[in-house]
């Protein structure tokens, strides 16, 4: 049962890491939301230093950037109309940008709370273990909609499931069985 003890310890460390990481990100989002609220109201002048961290937290929460239509007079009766990124204009106190930034903060806090709940959900971890190759491909940023990558995912998943079957079947004796098989070749 040595292999199961190691796997259980690794899983517990990963769960604790994810819980701490998501608690930290929730805490930082709430602090930065408070700081942004003070900055918008004019009581804080140092929010510019936190822009990079805010955008990082939004990115890690998979908060998609929005575009906002803008029309500005450019003189002589002409108006310039264009769209602008909300996240790129986080430091602008534009009427349409500020409420969207508040919504992005709320969405990111909700995302991290959801991930925190997933950390203690055993079905989430069972799914992660069963579909580990897919999770790995998504983690490294590959697009599984590509047919070649989809085929690789299926192939690696099949190999992974066979490996899991043998680990479950032989447990601690798997190393010995593999050694015996190699010596017979």
Q: Round the mean pLDDT to the nearest integer and report it.
A: 87
Helical amount:
55-70%
% residues in beta strands: 5-15%
Order of helices and strands: HHEEHHHHH
Distance between the termini: 28 Å
Largest sheet: 2 strands, antiparallel
CA-atom Rg in angstroms: 24 Å
The low-pLDDT segments are none
Q: Strand pairing plus helix content: what structural class?
A: mainly alpha
- Overall 3D shape: elongated
Order of strands in the sheet with most strands? 1-2
- Give me the count of strands: 2
The helix count comes to 7
What would your notes on this structure say?
It is a single chain. The chain is mainly α and about 180 residues long. The protein contains seven helices and two strands, in the order ααββααααα. It has a two-stranded antiparallel sheet. A hairpin with a 2-residue loop joins β1 (about 65-75) and β2 (about 80-85). α1 (about 1-40) runs antiparallel to α3 and α5 crosses α6.
